[in-house]
Amino acid sequence: MLDISTLRESSQVIIDIAKEMSGDSRFASFAGEVTAIVNDAVVVNQEYIDIRLNNNPNFSTIDIMWEDFGYKNYKSMGLFGRMTTQYQRVEKTDESQFTIIDTKFKIVVNY
């Protein structure tokens, strides 16, 4: 679990992006260009995949719909369908890009 400061900073990134995209800081749904890197190897390269951002009172969730876009084996690839700011750090890395960072993977989302 991440420390409270990192959790809050990561959640604020998701809150800001949701508000920017939908006008509602609690939720956004969009097709994002996703690149996933697991153990320093690119396993998904610039694929458009549906993403949902949800903000709860204590943390945020990022749902990536891997299965709907042909990645039925996403778990064996080292990926998760749901990530939370309790366990994954999120950084705004460009004007319309954020990165989800875990110890074994990094997912870059352009929106």
Question: What would the keywords be for this entry?
Answer:
7 strands; 111 residues; PH-domain like; alpha+beta; 1 helix; seven-stranded antiparallel sheet
Question: What can you see in these coordinates?
Answer:
With 111 residues, the chain is an alpha+beta fold. The protein has one domain: PH-domain like. The protein is built from 1 helix and 7 strands; from the N terminus they run H-E-E-E-E-E-E-E. The protein has one helix at 4-22, and strands at residues 27-38, 41-55, 60-64, 82-84, 89-94, 97-101, 105-110. It has a 7-stranded antiparallel sheet. The radius of gyration is 13 Å and the shape is globular. 28% of the residues are buried.
Low-confidence stretches: none
H/E element order: HEEEEEEE
As for the CATH topology, it is: PH-domain like
Determine the strand fraction and express it as a percent band: over 45%
pLDDT average, as an integer?
98
Radius of gyration in whole Å, from Cα?
13 Å
Structural class assignment: alpha+beta
| Major pleated sheet | 7 strands, antiparallel
Number of helices: 1
Task: Tell the overall outline.
Answer: globular
Q: Tell me the total number of β-strands.
A: 7
Number of domains as seen in the coordinates: 1
**CATH architecture level-2 label:** Roll
Portion of residues within helices:
10-25%
Order of neighbouring strands in the sheet with most strands: 4-3-2-1-7-6-5
The N- and C-terminal alpha carbons lie at a distance of: 27 Å
CATH domain class name: Mainly Beta
